[in-house]
Amino acid sequence: GDSVTQMEGPVTLSEEAFLTINCTYTATGYPSLFWYVQYPGEGLQLLLKATKADDKGSNKGFEATYRKETTSFHLEKGSVQVSDSAVYFCALRDTIIQGAQKLVFGQGTRLTINP
Amino acid sequence: DAGVIQSPRHEVTEMGQEVTLRCKLISGHNSLFWYRQTMMRGLELLIYFNNNVPIDDSGMPEDRFSAKMPNASFSTLKIQPSEPRDSAVYFCASSTRQGAWELFFGEGSRLTVL
Fold this sequence. Notes:
- The complex is a heterodimer.
- Chain A is 0% helix and 49% strand.
- Chain A has strands at 3-6, 11-14, 19-21, 23-26, 33-38, 44-50, 56-59, 62-65, 75-77, 86-93, 103-105, 109-114.
- In chain A, the strands form three sheets. In chain A, strands 2, 5, 6, 10, 11 and 12 form a six-stranded mixed sheet that branches. Chain A has a four-stranded antiparallel sheet with strand order 3-9-8-7, with no helix packed on it.
- Chain A is globular.
- Chain B starts with a strand and ends with a strand.
- Chain B is an all-beta fold.
- Classes of the chains: A mainly beta, B mainly beta.
- Chains A and B meet through strand 6 and strand 11 of A and strand 5, strand 6, strand 9 and strand 10 of B.
């Protein structure tokens, strides 16, 4: 079945450092790809998405490009802040079954930014 | 607008007791998902509904778990009897085609079974 593999954490960086969190996927079709973020004590929320190859999703300074040739969707940010400390989840949208989409999530990567 | 609302936020119970977790969807959303999050297994999809109908319950761990959606805006996840290995954070999420299927999560229910 479809699956998502993320870079293992935890990741600890200093403020203003460059961030990359790797994500690769396995899918039979042409999935849509997502990054969700979970701040401490909260539910997940959508950070960015890309629906087809070569699309770039971006939000809050984060970017990720849908690379079909390498089946990847790596998350990047040029200069991280303490407020970016959270758990980041890569996900793909599975086949729409009976009108409902199902997201397959990676295992999550915990990011800590030190001042 | 109100988001997905879950209750209780925290539940501590003893092994063997029945646990009921509740979820109110965002108005107008028609897909409902129950997830479980633990350190060991990460985020697992338990069951999801579309238009009140269960679509896939293959993630439900065993018969002790059951979920219902008695109307378009409300769902329950029940564990009977509960066991210590059920301790986790349980998330409810909803979505709709009109929202391009973006998942909106509640804040979760943290369950501790002693």
